[in-house]
Design goal:
Blueprint (H helix, E strand, L loop, with lengths): L4 H9 L5 E5 L17 E6 L8 E6 L4 E3 L9 E9 L2 E9 L6 H16 L5 E6 L7 H13 L7
Parallel strand pairs: 6-7
Antiparallel strand pairs: 1-3, 2-3, 4-5, 5-6
């Protein structure tokens, strides 16, 4: 994100998107939030290292949203928002799964994450880079199983 922010900022300033989710931010705590602030948006980050991973979100400030740290999973790079649209509550799960993460760890972690959220709110969407190739069944079975368990549909 540090090398591409100048390209991202105009998209945010033009209010083209309500929520922007960026994976593989490659940031760590040495990069201050003030470097990436944009008027009218709230920045949330979950960093790994400046060499890889990480996730960041920019949520429009006028959208009734709050981060749900109590739901977030420690083993996944994720940010969870609770938003209210037309009096309906939603959870937005922003997730990055690095290709090096073992399938069983991802499977267990995302099951816990989605289970925890569904205790509070029944409407949700999962957005992010999960690094599964849906075009190759043998490489995407884990993700297909998760979609079946939680009644999700892949729209990519």
């Amino acid at each position: 994100m540090r090398y591409k922010f100048d390209e991202l900022k105009p998209i945010l300033l033009d209010k083209i998107v309500d929520c922007l989710i960026i994976s593989e931010t490659k940031l760590d705590s040495s990069f201050k939030d003030s470097l990436f602030e944009v008027d009218g948006y709230k920045l949330q980050r979950r960093d790994r290292t400046d060499h890889g991973g990480g996730i960041a979100t920019f949520m429009r400030a006028d959208i009734p949203a709050r981060r749900r740290l109590d739901i977030e999973c420690k083993t996944l790079e994720n940010i969870v928002y609770e938003i209210t649209l037309d009096k309906t509550k939603w959870l937005i799960y922003a997730i990055y799964r690095p290709p090096s993460m073992a399938n069983n760890i991802f499977y267990d972690s995302i099951n816990i994450l989605l289970d925890n959220g569904s205790k509070f709110i029944e409407n949700y969407m999962v957005i992010g880079d999960l690094n599964y190739d849906f075009m190759v069944k043998s490489k995407s079975q884990i993700l297909e199983d998760i979609c079946d368990i939680f009644d999700l549909s892949n729209i990519v």
